[in-house]
Design goal:
Shape of chain B: elongated
Number of helices of chain B: 4
Strand content of chain B: under 5%
Number of domains of chain A: 1
Radius of gyration of chain A: 24 Å
Number of strands of chain A: 11
Oligomer: heterodimer
Largest sheet of chain A: 4 strands, mixed
Order of helices and strands of chain B: HHEEHH
CATH class of chain A: Alpha Beta
Structural class of chain B: mainly alpha
Strand order of the largest sheet of chain A: 9-2-11-10
Strand order of the largest sheet of chain B: 1-2
Radius of gyration of chain B: 23 Å
Helix content of chain B: 40-55%
Number of helices of chain A: 9
Largest sheet of chain B: 2 strands, antiparallel
Chain lengths: ~270, ~120
């Protein structure tokens, strides 16, 4: 009996070893890269441990003040204005950055006697690049994912258009392409260096990850002339940390625990 | 054999129909390699043989490295550095989509949908 068990364990151990080493060899072969070259980060890339944005809403008064910023963003990313064409799709909207009232932007924090300057002011809204992004958790294809620097971004190649992320996002930051966006863009497109999207995918703000790789600040930050700050939240010397230390700031729907990366100075 | 006439006729008809593409193309000439118009710049990121065989896998790898690993620069086997971008690197030299990409894709009946999002040189539509 003893001998039988011993020989059985020998065979079993050897089989497990053979199978597992074969499996690892197979899986590493599947992941092996085809290119003979190597990859490295872009040379001018701006780096941070946790990118965050601080919007000084005191310096903006009307929705028109935000127009330049929204236009800069939408032109940089070829975001179509579907309402511009009267073709029955006027109820559609693709937006990466937009404005809404305090009541809609901060629904948890309402009191009847808020100062008019806060209550009546439009607030610029965009993807919050949450530390705990619900959109990333619900995406079945990992088309939406979080980079180590905190940016929540998308791989449109992988998006299957299931719109779980739109249901998951508590901030309404995502838009679905119900129609082909190319029909609503100028020809040539506003930014020929950046792709468009296609029908059937979801899109959103990416904190201009492609501009950061070239050493540029996000398009909205550049267009804001210093009224929107962008920097590393983990660096106590960064402009965003200094602005947050000196001013009272709020974030959208903090009780959900998503830990937004966009701060509003009110 | 029961009903042998109908069965044999059926088998013959089946074989003729199944092999009809071979008969239809029999003697219609050899496969001609499509003649692509090469860009004027002599060097690509890797050798022509490698690019011809592996450009699709390379593009997939570029996408994953750039988007997911934030590695947006490719150092080729010769040591030259390239920005990882289909639109801003590849298409800057290969700027004639119809005479380059499409030549082989059409001949081989493949229909990649790169251009539903990525913008072709000279207009997007």
């Amino acid at each position: 009996m003893n001998k039988n068990r011993r020989s059985f364990l020998k065979v079993a151990g050897l089989s497990v070893f053979a199978l597992s080493s074969g499996a690892t060899a197979f899986s590493s072969a599947a992941q092996a890269m085809v290119s003979p070259g190597t990859y490295e980060p872009a040379p001018k890339e701006l780096k941070a441990k946790r990118w965050a944005m601080v919007i000084d809403t005191r310096t903006f008064r009307t929705a028109d003040d935000y127009k330049a910023i929204i236009e800069a963003c939408h032109a940089a990313h070829n975001v179509p204005d579907i309402r511009s064409k009267a073709d029955g799709h006027e109820d559609q909207e693709i937006k990466w950055i937009w404005t809404d009232s305090y009541k809609h932007a901060f629904p948890d924090d309402l009191n009847e006697h808020l100062a008019d300057r806060v209550k009546k002011r439009p607030f610029p809204l965009l993807c919050n690049h949450c530390t705990n992004p619900p959109c990333v958790r619900v995406c079945p294809t990992q088309a939406t994912y979080q980079l180590p620097n905190g940016i929540v971004t998308m791989d449109y190649h992988r998006c299957i258009g299931c719109r779980f992320c739109m249901a998951g996002c508590p901030y309404g930051a995502r838009s679905f392409n119900f129609v082909d966006p190319r029909g609503y863009l100028s020809d040539p497109v506003p930014n020929p260096e950046y792709p468009t999207r296609m029908i059937g995918v979801v899109e959103k703000c990416t904190f201009c990850v492609e501009r950061l790789a070239k050493g540029l600040m996000p398009a909205c930050v550049e267009a804001s002339e210093g009224r929107i700050l962008f920097g590393d939240l983990n660096d106590p010397e960064s402009t965003v940390r200094k602005a947050l230390a000196e001013n009272y700031s709020i974030r959208r729907k903090p009780n959900l625990g998503t830990q937004p990366g966009v701060y509003y100075i009110v | 054999m029961y009903n042998s006439k109908a069965v044999i006729a059926g088998i013959v008809a089946f074989l003729v129909i199944c092999t009809s593409p071979f008969w239809a193309n029999f003697g219609s000439g050899d496969y001609k390699k499509p003649e692509v118009v090469l860009p004027k710049k002599p060097e690509c990121i890797e050798s022509a043989e490698f690019m011809r065989a592996e450009h699709m896998q390379l593009l997939n790898e570029w996408r994953d490295q750039a988007l997911r690993h934030d590695n947006r620069q490719y150092v080729s086997s010769t040591g030259k550095k390239w920005e990882i971008s289909l639109q801003n690197t590849c298409m800057k030299c290969h700027n004639d989509y119809e005479q380059f990409c499409d030549k082989c894709h059409v001949t081989n009946n493949v229909d990649p949908y790169c251009w539903t999002c990525h913008i072709l040189p000279k207009g997007s539509k």
